[in-house]
Amino acid sequence: MSKRILITGAAGFLGSHLCDRFLNEGYHVVGMDNLITGSMDNIAHLMPRSDFDFYHHDVSKFVHVPEALEGILHFASPASPIDYLKMPIQTLKVGSLGTHHLLGLARVKGAKFMIASTSEVYGDPLVHPQTEAYWGNVNPIGPRGVYDEAKRFQEAMTMAYHTYHGIDIRIVRIFNTYGPRMRINDGRALPAFFSQAILGEDITVFGDGSQTRSFCYVDDLIEGIYRLYQSNYTLPVNIGNPIEISIQQAAEEIIRLTNTDSKIIYLDLPVDDPKIRQPDISKARNILNWDPKVERAEGFESTYQYFKTVLQ
Ligand code: UDP
Predict the structure, then answer these.
(1) Strands 71-74 and 4-8, how do they pair?
(2) Which residues are catalytic?
(3) Residue among 175, 199, 273, 277 whose CB has most ligand 1 atoms within 8 A, to mutate
(4) The predicted structure's pLDDT at residue 195
(5) Ligand 1 binding pocket includes 266 (Cβ within 6 Å)
(6) In the chain, what are the domain boundaries?
(7) Which residue is closest in CA terms to ligand 1's atom 14?
């Protein structure tokens, strides 16, 4: 009998890549998604498999899975700023009520419980690069607060179940990630720039483009998450690529790569947009022996190829 795990957000960008990875490792995967931001296209190739089950369900409501589970990976949530601005209540509920339901399920099943936390727990950071020891600088009532505070609550709740109920937990703090299966219109910088470049539209840089991010290719991220899941480390671990670039530079690289005639235009910077972001990944290096491997040129190229096929 293969080991069975539940992945929530299975039809999303990261969730679907995680399903692939765990299936490749011989797990039986139960995927769950309410499809408010996920897409069945991301898991269509898995539907015929007998070692994959899919439940169309909102984990903010009671979650029932009849079979034994070795682990639960909670990756369901709107995750891009325009999504959580459009769906603030759902974002708060999936991080809070959803997490509570899944922790209850983990307790009943004796399952390991992993959550997808985020660099957003650090908010607009006053410490750079961000280590896991940093407590963050978050505006609870700002537009990003619904996501940031849901994720911070999720960490607190997960830690409480670890401390009081002995649940075996993993907390991955995910930094900006990109690659195939990102939604073209999810509003994030890289999908926006790639689609604008391919369609010959203006490239929309917010602010003056001097704000920074550190972009990790999805395959590297999934490797880090898989290693953390298999480890026995129960405190938060940053997973991301520490190479930091400005948004202006990202836009220029995409213009060069795609050979587009599109021009950069500068729009208002969204409220509470973090000015800098770079993960300190010493912990992941030491504990998981993990380091990102995919160069940006290679990652951008395969992402470009993916977006071309989606847009044609
Ligand atoms: N951004 C941009 N143009 C866009 C979308 C985003 O300049 O069309 C900026 C955004 O303001 C932020 C950075 O790019 O400073 C990364 O934004 P993204 O939404 O990708 O992720 P997050 O802000 O959550 O890191």
Answers:
(1) parallel
(2) 147
(3) 273
(4) 97
(5) no
(6) 4-177+216-239, 183-213+243-277+294-306
(7) 189
Ligand 1 atom with minimal separation from the 247 CA: 14
Residue given tokens 């021009």 in the structure block: 263
Residue given tokens 């800098």 in the structure block: 276
CB 25 within 8 A of CB 229: no
Output the residue whose Cα is nearest ligand 1's atom 19.
188
Measured in angstroms, how far is the CA atom of residue 134 from the centroid of ligand 1?
22
- What's the confidence (pLDDT) of residue 2? 72
* Distance in Å, CA 80 to ligand 1 centroid: 9
Q: Are 90 and 75 in contact (CB under 8 A)?
A: no
pLDDT of residue 1: 61
Distances (CA, A) of 81 to 183, 202, 229, 239: 13, 20, 27, 20
* CATH assignment, 183-213+243-277+294-306: 3.90.25.10
Q: How far apart are CA 37 and CA 9, in angstroms?
A: 9
Q: Is the pTM of this model over 0.90?
A: yes
pLDDT at 203 over 90: yes
| Domain covering 4-177+216-239 in this structure, CATH number | 3.40.50.720
The C-alpha atoms of residue 119 and residue 125 are separated, in whole angstroms, by 9
Q: β-pairing, 212-214 with 52-56?
A: unpaired
Cβ-Cβ contacts under 8 Å for 98 (sequence gap 6 or more): 8, 58, 59, 60, 74, 76, 77
Ligand 1, atom 16, residue with closest C-alpha? 189
Structure tokens at 115: 């959550």
Measure the CA dihedral 124/202/12/311, to 10°: -170
* Ligand 1 pocket check for 294: Cβ under 6 Å: no
